[in-house]
Design a protein that fits this description.
This protein has 96 residues and is mainly alpha-helical. Helix content is 69%, strand content 0%.
């Protein structure tokens, strides 16, 4: 049986492979609905407990910031920044 520590080492090794930090260009054409959902999923993932995912335990703060930037850029390009902010406020209000 593989231990949690061994899994973490495997993920860390994979993320350290030469070339993994190189930028790639991805041409995406997705609906605004999916941009909104993707942004929400990125936010949920970054705010989740790190213990829930071995991969998230290995992610650096720089990578976290990169993912936040990607999410923000997608929302900006789709013209959904204001809508996303209003939905976040609505969601937070519903939690109270």
């Amino acid at each position: 049986m593989i231990t949690k520590n061994e899994v973490a080492k495997v993920f860390d090794t994979i993320l350290s492979i030469p070339g993994m930090s190189e930028t790639v260009r991805i041409d995406l054409k997705i609906s605004r609905k999916n941009v909104l959902l993707l942004s929400h999923l990125i936010t949920l993932g970054l705010n989740s407990k790190k213990e829930d995912s071995m991969l998230l335990e290995c992610i650096s703060s720089e990578s976290q910031q990169d993912l936040k930037s990607i999410s923000e850029e997608c929302l900006l390009k789709a013209g959904l920044v204001e809508l996303n902010e209003k939905l976040a406020v609505l969601s937070d209000t519903a939690k109270l």
